[in-house]
Amino acid sequence: MANSLFVAALLLAPVLGAPAPQVTIPASFGPDSQVSASVQPSTSGYRVEVLENGYTSATYHGPYTGTPTTIGAVPGPTTLAASIAPQPLNPTATYYNTKGVPLNPMPAPFTPAGGLGTNGSLPRYMVNSDFDFESIALGLYQEWIELDLFHDGLARFTDEQFTAAGLGPEARSLIEFMGNQESGHATLLTNMLGERAPKECVYNYPYTTVREWVDFMQRLTRFGESGVWGFINHLDSREVGQLLAQSIATEARQQQIFRQMSGLTPMNVWFENGWPQSWSWTMLAPYISYCPENTTRLAWQNFPTLHILNNANINRYSPNDTAQDGSETVGPRIADPSRSNITTGSCINLNVTGFGCGPAIAHNKSEPLSFPGKKVLFQWDAPGSAVGPNNSYVTSTSAGPPKFVGWSQQLNLTYSPLTVTGNNSGYTYQPEGFVYGNDGIINGTMAVMLTDVNLYVTPFNVSLLNPHIVALGLYQAG
């Protein structure tokens, strides 16, 4: 592998004084361009088959039925403490500029003092610690499932099914392009990990309709994106962080597009939220059926699942009519989509402003998916469930009895009291709060959790909450 990786960008400048657009529709567009091309072989370790309209997908998407040969997250040589205790402010974090001009000598013209990796040393685009390796390996697991998932629906569903869901050929072409993006992302992360990079696996998906497929993709890209924002600035390798940021910016665009295709508002927060690695691994692992032998395992924790029984069904024109027993989610896994084949109250083909939810650039909801004061009903699993590749990981928690509900969104971790009503069941009321101005904290697709304490954490140290999490869920707030 080359010692350095060169990234080039082509910048396209707008043309000033351009002529008015042509309005006459041409009768023909000339012959196809003649461009040399070759078909590249698949990099997947599993056989694929050609299905609808020539799209390909893996031959199997279902549960693992074997017996795991390894159990649990991969350990280190030893573990030094049960948890990391909160510490006071870093004593070197003292810089404050009251003059508005550079205070220190510049190392070169137009180059203010400071920064990391700015001394002219040759970049090394490789992970540089165990933290880096495990974080990027998790990211690669995410890229592999996206590569398979984005293509699977294209191969699974017919033209008629896509048309009924409001997605024409151009939308499908865009999804195919996003799937192809994942091939590049997986290659990049593989190169930065080296020879023990995880390989593509076999996956077990929850959807049976186009709408459920798209909804699942907006949920999966949510934890894929947030999972990276949570660790990227903790990486020891700044070079790896640079390239990772350039790929996750694409993931953010994918999440927005899948929200639009799901009939959701594309952007409803001022800031995106960052999650610790164990949160995104908890959400990802249940959808991995099995992996090739000797696939590199991960060190992150799998939390028990928090089931949100009245999580709003995005396919209803009145989300408050969502059933209260969890039956409008397609299954029991943490990021399963809303059931789309409801018999009454569907907004999918409703062309009424404020109530329709077909694919669109944007929708305004007359009745929001959630609101401050909404009673949110929970059930949660006990630890000890087998999850993930080959059912070889086990959910766990070190927390005491649950007392609070944590709502992680934007720049905040907000708590509300939990009322326990029975064995692993309870409720809370969705809290109200604002980041700045009228920007409500709780919105979008977001993480919620049960905790035993209301520990104060901020975006850069939210992983300190992990030892206090009882169960973790995904909330569809907007």
Q: What's the short version?
A:
The protein has about 475 residues and is of the alpha+beta class. The chain has helices at about 130-155, 160-165, 170-195, 210-230, 240-260, 275-285, and strands at about 50, 55-60, 200-205, 290, 305-310, 375-380, 385, 395, 405-410, 410-415, 420, 425-430, 445-450, 470-475.
Q: What does the model show?
A:
The chain has 478 residues and is α+β, with helices and mostly antiparallel strands. It is 23% helix and 13% strand. It has six helices and 14 strands. It has helices spanning 130-156, 159-164, 169-193, 210-231, 238-261, 277-284, and strands at residues 48-50, 56-58, 202-203, 288-290, 306-308, 375-380, 386-387, 393-394, 404-409, 412-417, 419-422, 425-429, 445-451, 469-476. A hairpin with a 2-residue loop joins β9 and β10. The two termini are 44 Å apart. Mean pLDDT is 89; it is low at 1-46.
